[in-house]
Amino acid sequence: MIFPRACAIVHQGGIGTTAQALRAGRPTVVVPYSHDQPDNAARVKRLGTSFTIAGQQYSATRVIKALGELLRNPTYTTKAAEIGHTIQSENGVGVASDAIEQQLEVLTK
Questions:
Q1: Where does residue 49 rank: exposed (0-12), middle (13-18), buried (19+ CB within 10 A)?
Q2: What's the DSSP call for residue 55?
Q3: Whether pLDDT at 55 is above 80
Q4: pLDDT surpassing 90 at residue 19
Q5: Which domains does the chain have, with CATH numbers?
Q6: Cα radius of gyration (the chain)
Q7: Which of 13, 58, 61, 86 is the Cys-Cys partner for 30 at CB 3.0 to 4.6 Å?
Q8: pTM score of the predicted model
Q9: Where are the strands (E) in 1-109, listed by range?
């Protein structure tokens, strides 16, 4: 995977890319355009791991400035690393499987 090797990630904010960036523990610049992207951008901004640039305001200059601010402030990198560690330590498949099995047991009784 490339994300864990990056110092920061710039992306549109789709849920899959957002989740992979969080899992990698890397700060992000999100440039949302539509669908779930603006909401995902707002959520990672609230987490303290990301800057957001509106799609209509995208420019290379703005991205360079945002990346510079993101990388100069260690708070973003620290928070992203903390969240990445938490996500990496979760057993999502196991938890989901247990929840499904519990519901099936309730339904079959």
A1: buried
A2: G
A3: yes
A4: yes
A5: 3-108 (3.40.50.2000)
A6: 17
A7: 13
A8: 0.85
A9: 9-11, 28-30, 50-52
